[in-house]
Amino acid sequence: ADSQNINPWLRGISGIGMAISFAVMVTGGSNVFLMLALWILYHSLVNVGQRWYGFGWESQLLETGFISIFMVPFFSLNPLPAGCPTSWVSIWAMRWLTFRIMIGAGMIKMRGDSCWRDLTAMCYHYETQPVPNPVSYYLHRTPLWFHKFETMMNHIIELVVPFFLVAPFRSVIVMGGLVQIMFQGVLIVSGNLSFLNWLTAIPPIMCLDDQFLAPLFSASTVARVVELNAQPWVPGVVNIIREGAYGAFAALVLWLSAPVIQNLFSPNQVMNTAFGSWRLVNTYGAFGSITRIREEVILKGTYDELWAAREPHWEEYEFKVKPGDIRRRPPVISPYHYRLDWLMWFLPFGDSRRHPWLYHLIGKLLVNDEGVTTLMSRNPFHDREPPKYIKADIYVYEYTEPSSPEAKKGNWWKRQKKGTYLAPMSLDSLESVFQQFEWAWPPDPRLEPEQPSKAKAE
Fold this sequence. Notes:
This protein has 458 residues and is an alpha+beta fold. Helices cover 48% and strands 10% of the residues. The protein has helices at residues 3-27, 32-49, 56-69, 88-111, 114-117, 122-128, 134-139, 144-159, 170-190, 196-200, 210-213, 219-230, 237-265, 339-346, 357-365, 370-373, 405-408, 427-436, and strands at 273-274, 282-283, 294-302, 315-316, 318-319, 376-378, 389-399, 413-425. It has a 4-stranded antiparallel β-sheet. The protein has a two-stranded antiparallel ribbon with strand order 1-2. Strand 1 and strand 2 form a beta hairpin. Helix 1 (3-27) runs antiparallel to helix 2 and helix 3 runs antiparallel to helix 4. It is globular.
């Protein structure tokens, strides 16, 4: 479908989702229809989003959202509805989700990079993570013993503490939930991992019972909850149907958990994978491999002809949050997700041919497509003719020492060119690539192709 036709649908889906979410947030109440609508809307975006929505926490958000459908009443929007306490199945489904997230992350680390086993992973993580923040800069300079200590604590929290969530003792469950929530808080402070940590902090809240949470609420709210809890269960038609739905959902979770458990015990464990198109019960994990150096792909454009006697004058594109300008302070953006910057972080891990979307991006930049340039911090060809050629160079980035001459000049980074990631490309050299992937050609519909193209409109 033509992107010009699908964009209004995408905006409409996003707008409706934001409106419903805002209403739920303000009123503090929801029902099955609203939560199901939110789940369907986001599922639609993930399904059509392809690479743009290919991150592991998309499935995690969908799974969390689906469990939430069983936490609310069928019709009522009352935040404290009578006769509809938080369901037992949603409490245990959230704890099971937390358990799988943590165990999956811990196991993939122990089976993956050796730096997790020798406790040196954190010596590299703060510098090489997708989007560092200012705290990352300073944590990178902490002593080796501290990096080893925090790596060991990571293993304990991900591989030992999850078993607290299924313990038969209330105090142990509460402590396990608190540790997981605080752990996500530490990760939020030390990096910009999108909304992943904010989302992961939600399920362990189901480990905190009314007794623990009561001091956070007003006396009237607590009294109302005590009153509701004292009401006996009435075996009416609605309650029987509701309990039947809870039982069916519990059976579904158990059935869909089989391949997830098998994956956890597999020596070929995969992470962030959905074992079904509905994404109801998934497998998770993060940072199974840690890069030792930070490599950044830098896009550059020029008006000059490549065969001219002099070296072409290349001008750099600047992205909104990924390292580029060495003088720019690492940002604080969590929980916002700059998807293009994250995709750029993955490029150095493989050949450009493994990332065909990069060719699409360059094609759009070669015509100054506003839909793409607005995703960037600086387009050097803004309000000018687009460049004739764009190339991608790869640089090695390192933090400057806090008291070094570079840092005193205002530089947060220092960099050294490693080589060329993608040779200079023009619109002419990209046409065959666009035809191969059946992308709309030319990239800018205002341009007229010199001859009819066989490419189908996207």
